[in-house]
Amino acid sequence: MKKTEAELLENQWDVENMEVDPEVLARYVRYDVDAKRHVATITFDRPDKLNAIPVAAFERIGDLVREAEADDRVKVIVFKGEGKHFGTGADAAELGHYIGYKAGTKRRPAQRQRILPDRNVLSSGFTRPIIESLKATICQVQGYCYGGHFQIALSADIVIAAPNARFTHPAFRYLGPAPQDMYHWIEKVGLTTMKDVMLTMRAIGAEEGERKGLVTKVVPLDELEKWVDDYADAIAVMPLDSLMMGKSMMQVVMEARGKGLGAMTGWVGHGWATNVSFDEGDWNFLKERREKGIAQALADRDRLVAPYFRLSESRSSE
């Protein structure tokens, strides 16, 4: 009898204590290098869960980006997701635990318990290595691009998307307009769109993303991989020294425009956001998840707003 994923993961993934077997991480985040084409590929492989992955897997992504950056065979790093979606961020079962919330504990984690995870995971763990990579980075996006996966796309040099791609961070629903990579939001989509998305908690479609500067190019779904390959091959023609020197100069300009300070607001501000106080009648994700389960909690949250502002396509027309 074939075992379910839950059975296979037993003793391999301790959700509350954020401990995951390295074999599980390697299965969910695959890494390959095509030396002939000078391309490293990081693939999210948990399609039955919309490519939601453990928080520890995002740290693995940062490690793989650093590995590719130091590999002279690699000029381009491609991020892609198996199945219908690019990815939906960290597995919702872990949310809250990584900053210290434990089952049966009513006391809120101290700010000092939030600072290091926010800095080391949200910033230094995976977005910073991508943003500061001296190799070219490309995202191949179809379907949902939410949460940590959205932060990857926001941090990448180039985003090629299918028409059905949707971009946002669900943390806006859990915490309000939390400062998730706010600097890069403003740089890529502008202040007006950033406020629109953060305050209404909606997703950006592929075509809107292309108009606003988040998406490099929208292409038919059946041509998505071919377009990404063509972009990677075009970049790989450039000498490695030229590429890395050029990316270094881009970093200088980004620092001059406030990248470093902007990155700090992400992990400093997130500590405030995760300490939000809920009044009676407010929608509280952790409470709803505990009482109803993840799927029902998110379904109920989507139904509170008009279809335009919902994150799930399956509920968008109800």
TrEMBL record:
One of its GO terms (molecular function) is catalytic activity. Pfam families: ECH_1. Gene3D superfamilies: 2-enoyl-CoA Hydratase, Chain A, domain 1. Transmembrane segments: none annotated. PANTHER family: ENOYL-COA HYDRATASE, IP11341P-RELATED. Belongs to the enoyl-CoA hydratase/isomerase family. This is Enoyl-CoA hydratase. It comes from Virgisporangium ochraceum.
